[in-house]
Design brief:
Number of strands: 34
Helix content: under 10%
Structural class: mainly beta
Shape: elongated
Mean pLDDT: 86
Number of helices: 1
Largest sheet: 34 strands, parallel
């Protein structure tokens, strides 16, 4: 069995028109690594990448319309274009250097570009996914690392997380939307319960208009889950963290991010029972975009720069050593609130707070 094969050796024609589904399926069956050369490989059925296989294109970097010369192009009506299904085995699965798109036309509701279904060691690197309902979907039994992934022109959400084992997104870009009459509802929609979700050194910037939600937790029950946002550039979304339907997260950590959004850092929409059991926010730079609200949270907010005003609405919170260039408003029911050593450019306003809270200079 050859170690590396070119898909054209199995009859694929890289013209974006001739069906190459049989060619790539046969190539994957016969070799550990399949190379997709320059051009577009049209497929009429979803490409399934099994355990122990690598599909590799020729991309050199990532970003909308840059660095990609190798594409898998699905039929417009496909629900899924590329599926990683490692079968729960220990062999790695890799997809790298590849664009994943579909034929022009209306985007089918619920359609996905890349689906990560099963696999113990999955690596996604230098992959671009666009013109889908969802650019990327993570399912239950996947342990993975995603590096330099880029998505744009989606009609629902950039990433849909139904599960996963410690997924990490590193140096990814989520951006431009050029789908007529469609605007993504969220960058990430999280309905499964990954143990730890890490998002670091990524850029979120849809210059076609506001995405309503950054990270939407929908019926998420992760009592042992940890959600980490580190060193990201975040803009062009309404709210950052949004909860629906009885959300529980053990720990939420925001560190070193640049955030410039018009809405709230935390918004509990239709969810009076949401629970971030520990909320840690430090070293972030929050742009001058109006009022930032902290609803009832437990944790620490320290060493951040807020260019606008801040409202803290109860909880067990230590709010200290922050720079607030606008007003600091303190309200709500506190089980334990500590406010100290903050530099406040405006006024400190007490709006009927109650419970155990203390304010020092």
């Amino acid at each position: 069995m050859p170690t590396v094969v070119d898909v054209t050796s199995y009859g694929a024609i890289m013209d974006g028109v001739t069906d190459g589904y049989a060619a790539i399926t046969n190539a994957l069956a016969s070799s550990a690594k399949v190379v997709i050369p320059n051009g577009g490989l049209y497929v009429s059925q979803p490409v399934v990448v099994p355990a122990g296989k690598e599909v590799c294109g020729l991309a050199s970097n990532h970003g909308p319309n840059t660095g990609f010369s190798s594409y898998i192009i699905g039929a417009n009506g496909l629900n899924e274009v590329v599926v990683v299904d490692g079968g729960g085995g220990n062999l790695p699965v890799t997809v790298r250097g590849l664009g994943i798109t579909r034929k022009p036309g209306p985007i089918p509701p619920g359609s996905k570009g890349l689906v990560l279904r099963r696999g113990d060691h999955v690596l996604i690197e230098d992959v671009q996914s666009h013109h889908h309902g969802k650019a990327l979907q993570l399912e239950a039994q996947v342990r993975l690392n995603i590096s330099r992934f880029c998505s744009f022109d989606v009609s629902e959400e950039h990433v849909n997380i139904l599960g996963g084992i410690e997924p990490t997104f590193d140096n990814c870009r989520f951006g431009r939307n050029g789908v007529a009459g469609a605007q993504p509802t969220s960058y990430f929609r999280i309905t499964g319960s990954p143990d730890t979700l890490r998002v670091k050194d990524c850029t979120f910037a849809d210059n076609s208009g506001l995405v309503n939600h950054g990270f939407l937790f929908d019926n998420y029950s992760g009592p042992n889950g940890i959600f980490m946002l580190t060193n990201n550039h975040i803009e062009q979304m309404n709210h950052l963290l949004v909860t629906y339907h009885n959300v529980t997260v053990q720990r939420v950590i925001l560190t070193g991010n640049s955030i410039n959004i018009p809405g709230c850092l935390i918004a509990g929409a239709d969810d009076p029972n949401w629970d971030f059991r520990e909320f840690i926010m430090s070293g972030n730079n929050i742009g001058d975009v109006g009022m930032q609200c902290f609803p009832y949270v437990n944790g620490a907010v320290s060493g951040n720069n807020f260019a606008g005003s801040v409202t803290v609405q109860g909880g067990m919170i230590a709010f200290g050593s922050n720079t607030v260039q606008g007003d600091l408003n303190i309200s709500g029911q506190f089980s334990r609130g500590r406010f100290g050593f903050n530099a406040v450019g405006g006024q400190i306003n007490f709006c009927s707070p109650c419970g155990d809270f203390f304010v020092s200079p």
